[in-house]
Amino acid sequence: MGASPLSCSAYNMFRLRHGAPMLRSALPPPPRSIIAGDSRGSSRKSASRFDGERFPEHGEKQSSTNDVQQYDVAIVGGGMVGMALACSLATMPLTRQLNVAIIDSHPALQGKLFIKKEDPPDPRVSTVTPASISLFKDVGAWEYVLQHRHAFFDKMQVWDYTGLGYTRYDARDINKDALGCVVENKVLHHALLSCIQNTELQKTIYPSRLTSMTIHPSSSSTRVDNTLSTTEMHNRGNLAKLELSDGRSLYAKLVVGSDGGKSHVRELAGFKTTGWSYPQNAIICTVEHAVENHCAWQRFLPAGPIALLPIGDNFSNIVWTMSPQEASERNSMNEDDFVKAVNHALDDGYGPHPKSSLLGNGDMFSWLRANATSSAKESFQVPPKVTKVASARMVFPLSLKHANDYASRRVALIGDAAHTVHPLAGQGVNLGFGDAFALARVIAEGIAVGTDIGEISLLKKYEAERKPANIMMMAVLDGFQKAYSVDFGPLNILRAAAFNGAHYISPLKRSIISYASGEQKLPLFS
After folding, report:
1. What is the reported pTM?
2. Can you name the CATH fold of 125-183+278-398+485-516?
3. CA 524/CA 510 separation, integer angstroms
């Protein structure tokens, strides 16, 4: 005998709240997706898969003869974080039946990914943490990442230009195979897109921009009366109205702003922010070595950190933070001079290599060394030399910004729309992925109990889960940025002591790794 709808809902709520695995059904028939408003014809007559095949349009509620489009969720911003939300909605049992609109004019949403193996990696990459990898695996997107270039790394070395301290991390310290994986952003985006395409999620892509959003005051009920017309539901506050740059309008129960640090959704919804600009720019580019790099490297310099991240084969990615003037000067250097500058910054420029520990070589601290992790017994290593620049150099300003609220009635913010952070630990996109998957779970909880998914009381559950975690990470990164921006003798000694403490004190090291991996909420001793 089949289970009743009530018992199914109760069990689904149990699974959502207690982290039990969601069962995935077998792959559906060939996927369909709509690209609304194809310039070659009416959006009412044609729709397009990403590979150009044509299918009848679906996934839209037609509430009148005036071609009014109504959706459950409208995702404004189809980048990595927005697509992570769509992918999660597409694969969860309680949300896969939703109608979803994706509003973004980026051409990557309308075409296949073509990567030639002989081409160097794109300089726009992300360091995906083990926690994010686990989320990608849960929704079936990671298998698509593995089909393209990527680089796992199991070791990391961090040190200071003063030569007073360093620390090394190893995945074996926490019984893991890897500390993270460096992947080109376009590969991550394509993987999420491919995952969505192989589901039955009803979705429409609008290659347009959001220009205005209207949300009327809501009735007291937390449940939506679906017998009303779209206009009546909008007037009662049960739907948000979105107007696009191409003149079309659509309605949605929930609008999700995943449209980046300059979020238009955040602006239109009236969310206030707190933040500041750093007196720093970052240069990013792809570089090449004579040998393959399997370690992540980061050195703190007087003007900001430089990071060298493996990206596969003999390539690495550079993220170099410095003053805007220095960034302008180094960006205009010829290739040979820039390579020399990079090697100078990663080797013994600005100061000597760390050669000895503040713990000394006597017996006083021998118990610490004896009980240290395997990586604590490793000596300082010099990063591999950069031999050439393999991509264009890109420069962008750095800032910290945080939305005071992540949710209001009918609106939620995720990713950079809610928070932007300093790139020194590569945490930005991972925080965004955490937002996306958390919001999907909250939406599923609302569906399980019959609550309007745009109701603020439901969306505040998402905010309550993600806001403290994001603020904590932002505070840690901002603290690092400020602590390493000052060249002052006593502070240099304190920084060196922190490096050595992280290097030798096993509980502290394991806690740091777990926190940076996204697997521990707060950097507490384990």
Report:
1. 0.83
2. D-Amino Acid Oxidase; Chain A, domain 2 (3.30.9)
3. 10
